[in-house]
Write a structure and sequence with these properties.
CATH topology: Metal Binding Protein, Guanine Nucleotide Exchange Factor, Chain A
Shape: globular
Radius of gyration: 14 Å
Oligomer: single chain
Strand order of the largest sheet: 4-9-8-7-6
Largest sheet: 5 strands, antiparallel
Structural class: mainly beta
Helix content: under 10%
Distance between the termini: 42 Å
Strand content: 25-35%
Length: 122
């Protein structure tokens, strides 16, 4: 088990990650993610437990209002989201918030094409 927290420590999440590290690392080029510039990794809901700070989490939604983006209302750090794809089956974690992770040392990170998301096509 690993701990994920925001900058002020008000939000704390316990995550169960694979022994070998991350299952998948990625960035997204959608209008929100490219501005945040964060690296994310998926985790199943059964491997995600909000320990404290539920009252500090602020929800941000835009466009289709399906994806849920959460950040700490006290320090402003983006901690996790429920994406539009696999909405009820996965959380996307901000890996820089996971204890012991050095995000600038991570390499070969795939970029998800959020600019051309299938749900946006008419």
């Amino acid at each position: 088990m690993k701990k994920l927290s925001c900058h002020c420590g008000g939000v704390e999440i316990q995550v169960d990650l694979p022994e070998a590290g991350f299952e998948k690392l990625m960035r997204c080029n959608c209008s929100l993610c490219k501005r945040r510039g964060y690296i994310m990794t998926p985790v199943k809901p059964e491997n995600f437990k909000l320990i404290k700070g539920k009252d500090l989490l602020t929800l941000y939604q835009y466009h289709t209002k399906v994806a849920e983006h959460y950040f700490c209302s006290k320090c402003g750090i983006y901690t996790h989201s429920n994406p539009r794809s696999n909405h009820d089956k996965v959380y996307m974690l901000n890996v820089a918030c996971i204890e012991g992770v050095k995000p600038f040392e991570l390499e070969n990170i795939k970029v998800n094409d959020g600019e051309n998301h299938p749900l946006d096509k008419k």
